[in-house]
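Hi,

I'm pasting everything inline rather than attaching a file, because the server keeps stripping attachments. The sequence lines come first, and each chain or strand is labelled.
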Amino acid sequence: MDMAGQNSNNSSDFVRKLYKMLEDPSYSSVVRWGDDGDSFVVLENEKFTKHILPKHFKHSNFASFVRQLNKYDFHKVRQNNEDGQQSQYGPNAWEFKHPEFKANSKDTLDNIRRKAPAPRKQGQAQDGDLPIQQIDLMNQQMVAQAQQIQLLEASNHELRANHQTMVQELVRLHRTVLNHDKVMQDVMKYLNSVDAQQRRNSKALFPNTQENAAGTNLTPTSQNIGAADDEIPASPLQHAQQLMQEYNVDSQLNFTGFDPNYPQQGNGMRRGPGSAHSSVSVGYSKLNDGQLEQMVYPTGGNNGIDPMYSEHLPNIPYPMPGKEIDATELRTKYAETRKKSNYNDPGWIRNPRILLVEDDPTCRQIGAKFLHSFSCTIDTALDGLEAVNKIQEGAKYDMILMDIIMPNLDGVSACHIVRQFDRTPIVAMTSNIRQDDIQMYFQHGMDDVLPKPFTRKSLLDMLEKHLIGLKKLPAGMEPPPPHGVNPSMTTHSSGPSIRDDMSAAASPAGSTGTWNSPSQYSGVSPVAPGMPMQYPTYMDNNTAAYHQQQTSPMNPNRGMPPAPMPPQGITQQLMRGPSDMLPQDMKPAKRQRVSGTYGGPPMTARQQ
Amino acid sequence: MADAEEFDFGDNVDTATFEQILDMDDADEDDAHEFSKSIVFGFLDQADSTFAKMETSKYVRPDKSIHVVRTLIHYVLRKDKDLKELSSLGHFLKGSSATLGFTKVKDECEKIQHYGQKKDETGATDEPDEEKCLRLIGQSIAKAKTAYDEVKRLMEQYYAKLEGNA
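And the predicted assembly:
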């Protein structure tokens, strides 16, 4: 055993010593080559152990010597000949043999190797089988790994779907909070006026407590009317602060109401975006017309469209588009301006590029004709799938008009997908304009709703509202902008900046009688393709997990940066002055802080 | 330009909406009404085939004259799917008829859409009785077809008159 170290350095060291020893003729009476030269014989065991072993192998242990021989695959030649004779070398001789160990054959010594210690039972016969076994094993491992990869991919998909959901939820919550902010601003404004009034009359009046939400409708002189319900008389401003906190608690509740399992629940519409997304990742193989015909209306109307958590949503007031009103408006309009040339050029600085996504040929033709009459460049897509394909292939539009219920891919799902990489304004064109429908459109990233059946005027209004950056100012005919317009903001011409301009120009109080379009809020949204500087900053503030999400191979360009969800502190900061009122150059700084302090991504990371 | 207000569409057509389409006709072209005409008759063809699709769904209901058991099984499995499809078809036709101002057709199609969603005709309340929904859809399809026939007649008259004048 003590030779093991030496032998491991040169595997044939022991064998060479053995050979050398046998070459010494002076030992021939003790140990010598066998008669045939293919074995060696220890004739005098005792002498060999005492005198020769110590000389050559530095020990005097015959058993050890035999073990060593066995390790090198020498075998003792058995003496039990059939004729009962003793060995030819004498009764006490030990004869050892190895196929490669022969007298006068030094070259073959190198072939004698120490056996592998462990698999002693497996003879040389198994050596040939080993590679095949190994290959089998490797194959199995590869199959197992492939399965693991599949599992990982599946879970990756799931995570991505979850991520999208979270992003959506964050955007929605963002809107909720902003709506709350607006309400609070109103309350504060009103309370300030009440407070001033009260101070003037302080000697005569008790501290009044009518500041609930309905109180905003009361005139200052009717202060005491609503006071009965409030148990604690507080100064109006204190009460307002209490109100704010309540609102903030509401947002918190929304937050905890997040359901991470939400993509697994339900079916239909909700699953739509997720599954649609997976098809995006395989490149949206285009369907030919034949397939399109087979797949008429797989979306099944709006049956599956169940707006979730609508109880948490702010009420988005919108007018039911009265058809009578439209009709009368039209009549008057037509009475005044019967010539269509009045519509012909709404005064664009260039022709707006519109993508019209509509499966119904009648609506599509009429819509395209109307758009054409407004000097728009029109591209059409027959369903959401085609629309997504076009946008993915890099087609740039100033605005997308999107039908909701379409075969193959409905408008909401299409919008949801497009929103992963593009911020072009998307307007839902639909007759499904129940409040929860509309909330759902906004949740999935739509910017506005054009109720069907649209009229030329409603269509033009929508164009002018969202393409205000393309308007020549002052225009020949005054556009009816639904929001206050800051003329200095409207002279930009580059497409991506339109949204920012719009939101900058949008006055928070200017939404009288129109939808509370989320475009108003985009001022605080980190989604700003026109501001490339902002993006890296945003990234730096986020966790590695989010980076991975960002750089996942399916979304090579960029994911949709989640809208930050302002916490209580920020909410109050925001409340002081809406972001719309800030100077343009201050807004990025503000966003950074918001996203850095409490951005969506850390949340998302936690989800993963 | 011939004025749609001078032609009596009755309450079948919302004139203001329809005139928007007429206004899109380019009066300078040879075929002055090509655009609106192609839209209108395109719609009429489309509506015709949509009604046909609706009818095939409707007839899935059990009919004693054919093998009752087999039909019943088929029917139970298909009923829900049929309702959804009818709703989709109703929705589809509703959109285009509304855009053209074909009010009566639109109203019936809207009802079909709602019945197909197992709701009442306004879409406000649920109507869980599928059999009733299918029956109501049958009635609405009949009404929609009547309205459609009327619109078709009127449109053919109207364009004949327009082209006669031209």
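Chain A has a mean pLDDT of 64.

If the labels don't parse on your end, tell me and I'll reformat.
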